[in-house]
Design brief:
19 strands, Cytochrome Bc1 Complex, Chain A, domain 1, 736 residues, 38% helix, six-stranded mixed sheet, 23 helices, metalloendopeptidase activity, globular, seven-stranded mixed sheet, alpha+beta
């Protein structure tokens, strides 16, 4: 094993110092567009293209304790040759195992680990992304090793069998994953001429090494064909100046071969025209009742400044008043709904709507689909709405303007992938920009969301099945949709409350920063009474118009028994459901909210832009004070919680171990079965009785920290006091 001695390190520093001096007079590359950055972003950025056409983004943060880098190659499982499913993934494994300059297989990994770093990679349908982080001072040595993977990798034959087994292990580990199992079914019913229909992960069978077809030769051929500098995007984040980073990166990565590889669109449709509409029924591993409706649509990634997929995903996935989900909940048919673009490829995408059904919703699946298609028809009838688009654009602009710093390793990985899709000026904001309203694109997208273009997938334990998927052995069935059933889905539904969203009352308007002459370094106790304490602190570090409000309600009625824990969990779930119609627009506006059980009570948390926080807090506290739950919502939410607890057996073993450790170590934590038993034994009357006891013994401790002035303390204390009983509180039982 090669070691990196101090003398070598000192020589490397000297070399990079010389390079830095040579570049000291360098400036932003002439004629090279530079990315627009957030006013709240104090990083330095430089975009450049190396002589070999490798596009690079440099990020400088002189105070960074860690450096990071990512290189994304525009190649993935969709490029696997026929008969070699998983080859792109296998190459990702083999690439790390030695280069001509650093031949020891573990040299890169050892160097990263010795200097406080981490490394990983992933393969998706279109991308293979490699990334690492490391203590900032050791970036030169790490980058030197990293670059060689793309200059002169060895792909030593001695490691072929080992890495084939590693790929097989990943495949075996996913056999119980419902997401991978669902993808296997989807790929089995796709157009076989589309690359997405092929198995992606790989296995010992698909990667078999035979004298007639040696896997290493296929690997080398794939690398030579697809790993080209013009298909790569590199992001480097370090404490060095931009000139120093450029001097470091340029010689290391300019040697990456440029084979001028072209990337062609995929002409084949994902589904053959005659195959849709289609109905799938799937038996999942988990206790699941899910309806997913997917529509093949155009590829809108080049129109990211218009982003019609985000516009429509926001409307269909909305959870506020008048939404599809609110109507489904009102009829007792569903608990959850999500919508947006999932799968995407060069030439198309899938727009998917996923609905978590109740037992009644499963029995009335055609009614659920009728409401879904009625909602989509309502959107088409109303046409594109510039008001709603501009509202989303405003929220996206606020999000970018007050962007918070991300973990460097995650940041560089995401940026490197996005550089393939966005113009250089938009690299930093491409995912959030909505600057070009295009009613034509929205109408075109809406026209594709019709029953005749739908793949409907129903996942539940008692699904009628007649076959198995090829790689994950998932029981499923596939059938065309009859004309009679299609008529039920498209029957007009005029008598619903479904409508377009109202204007969002929670969008921040005042984003100014408060300034007080004297501010304590740490939060101070600003209010105290027999049952309430308020701590206050004003932020002077981050300089953003945000704040966080935490109210910790403690009561003797939580923590001692599984029955108390179950009551607290069910109560908070019912509260969140009751306020969802008005808290969802707040969430869209950058106001995060949660109410949850803790060891000795429940907590209420609000965070985000401070401008409309008081309005949200007032409505939440009023809703808690006047909460009244219907029997149907109680039954449905309790059933959903029980199903979730029973699904713990489908978690990965590591997750189950962590759950068991939490139960053993933390006060008030109980295992799945005691909670299930307590929930099933509880009725709404018993819960109402517990709620009265909880608030009768409750105290409140509040932390108000962020872009606030001290006068907020009195207003918050006054509103919280309305929930608390008078007099001295009962003593809390000790934590165990």
């Amino acid at each position: 094993m090669q070691t990196f001695r101090f003398g070598q390190w000192r020589s490397a520093l000297a070399l990079f110092s010389v390079l830095a001096l040579l570049a000291a007079c360098a400036s932003v590359p002439v004629g090279q567009p530079q990315p627009v950055k957030s006013p709240n972003d104090d990083y330095g950025y430089r975009y450049l293209t190396l002589p070999n056409q490798l596009e690079v983004l440099l990020i400088s943060d002189p105070e960074a304790p860690k450096a990071a880098a990512s290189l994304d190659v525009l190649v993935g499982s969709g490029d696997n040759p026929p008969g070699r499913e998983g080859l792109a993934h296998f190459l990702e494994h083999m690439l790390f195992l030695g280069t001509d300059k650093f031949p020891e297989a573990g040299d890169y990994q050892q160097f990263i680990a010795q200097h406080g770093g981490s490394h990983n990679a992933y393969t998706s349908f279109e991308h293979t992304n490699y990334f690492f982080d490391i203590q900032a001072g050791y970036l030169p040595g790490a980058l030197d090793r990293f670059a060689q993977f793309f200059v002169a990798p060895r792909f030593d034959a001695v490691y072929v069998e080992r890495e084939m087994n590693a790929v097989e292990a990943e495949y075996q580990m996913g056999l119980r994953s419902d997401s991978r199992r669902g993808l296997d079914v989807l790929q089995d019913v796709m157009n076989p001429a589309h690359p997405f229909s092929a198995f992606t992960v790989g296995s010992l069978q698909t990667l078999a090494d035979t004298p007639e077809q040696p896997i290493r030769e296929d690997l080398l051929r794939f690398y030579e064909q697809h790993y080209s500098a013009n298909k790569m995007r590199l992001v480097v984040f370090g404490a060095e100046s931009l000139d120093e980073l450029e001097a470091l990166v340029t010689p290391l990565f300019s040697d990456v071969p440029n084979r001028d590889t072209e990337v062609a669109d995929i002409a084949a449709p994902l589904f053959t025209p005659e195959s849709l509409p289609m109905l799938l029924q799937v038996q999942p591993q988990a206790t699941l009742r899910q309806l997913e409706v997917s529509f093949p649509v155009a590829d809108y990634r080049a129109e990211y400044r218009s982003n019609p997929l985000a516009y429509l995903g926001n409307l269909v996935g909305h959870e506020g008043k008048g939404s599809l989900l609110s109507q489904l909940k009102a009829e007792g048919l569903a608990e959850t709904l999500a919508a947006g673009s999932g799968l995407g490829w060069r030439g198309g995408a899938l727009f998917s709507i996923s609905i978590g059904l109740t037992e009644e919703g499963l029995a009335q699946q055609d009614r659920v689909l009728q409401l879904l298609f009625s909602y989509l028809e309502m959107l088409r009838a109303n046409g594109p709405q510039q008001r709603l688009y501009e509202e989303q654009a405003r929220l996206a602009e606020l999000q970018f303007r007050f962007r918070e710093q991300a973990n460097p390793i995650s940041y560089v990985s995401a940026l490197a992938s996005g550089m393939h899709e966005y113009a250089p000026v938009d690299i930093l904001r491409g995912g959030s920009v909505m600057s070009e309203y295009s009613p034509e694109l929205i109408s075109e997208l809406q026209a594709a969301l019709v029953p005749g273009n739908a793949l409907v997938t129903l996942s539940h334990a008692s699904a009628a099945v007649d076959r198995e998927s090829p790689y994950y052995e998932v029981p499923y069935s596939v059938q065309p949709v009859s004309a009679e059933r299609l008529a039920r889905w498209t029957a007009p539904e005029p008598d619903t409350a479904m409508s377009l969203p109202a204007p969002n009352e929670f969008i921040a308007e005042d984003v100014s920063l408060v300034v007080d002459e004297s501010v304590a370094e740490a939060p101070q106790r600003a209010f105290e009474s027999a049952r309430q304490t308020v701590w206050f602190g004003q932020d002077t570090e981050f300089g953003v118009p945000r704040g966080a409000l935490y109210i910790n309600f403690r009561s003797p009625e939580v923590g001692a028994t599984p029955q108390q824990a179950a009551a607290a969990l069910l109560y908070t779930a019912l509260l969140k459901d009751a306020v969802n119609e008005f808290t969802y627009p707040a969430l869209l506006a950058g106001l995060d909210f949660d109410v949850y059980k803790h060891a000795q009570g429940i907590s209420l948390r609000i965070s985000g832009y401070d401008d409309k926080q008081q309005r949200l807090l007032d409505r939440l506290l009023a809703a808690i004070d006047g909460a009244s739950f219907s029997e149907q919502r109680f039954i449905n939410i309790r059933a959903d919680m029980v199903r979730s607890l029973r699904n713990a057996v489908a978690k990965r073993p590591s997750s189950q171990v962590m759950d068991d450790a939490r139960e053993a170590l933390l006060h008030g934590e109980w295992g799945e079965q005691p909670l299930i038993d307590a929930l099933l034994a509880m009725n709404l009357t018993a819960l109402d009785t517990w709620v009265q006891r909880f608030w009768g013994g409750a105290t409140a401790e509040t932390l108000l920290y962020g872009n606030y002035t001290a006068d907020k303390v009195e207003a918050v204390a006054e509103r919280v006091s309305a929930l608390l009983a008078a007099g001295e509180p009962p003593a809390l039982p000790p934590l165990r």
